Amino acid sequence: MESVRLLYVSKLGSQNTDLKKTLMNILNEAIDFNYKHEVKGVLYYGHGYFVQCLEGKKSVIDNLFYNKILK
After folding, report:
1. Alpha-carbon span 20 to 41, nearest angstrom
2. What pLDDT digit, counting tens, does each position of 26-37 carry?
């Protein structure tokens, strides 16, 4: 199994009136997905930007990044 680490920065796409709810939705979805797919990581949010580091099986991280995060 080839393990990889991915670090990226993204910006919140729009002005969000309920930022706390949006962040909690992202966190809940990530916890569920990461547990099921043995992905480890950290997510930081500040001043409209996200910084995330993900670690796991290369095929899982590639699929997650290209088919979910980029969309």
Report:
1. 20
2. 889 999 999 999
C-beta of residue 58 within 8 angstroms of C-beta of residue 22: no
Instruction: Dump the DSSP string for 11-54.
Output: E-SS--TTHHHHHHHHHHHHHHHHHHHT-EEEEEEETTEEEEEE
Sheet containing 49-57: give its strands across: 3-11, 49-57, 40-46
d(CA 23, CA 43): 10
Q: Which burial class, exposed, middle or buried, applies to 56 when counting CB atoms under 10 A from its CB (0-12, 13-18, 19+)?
A: buried
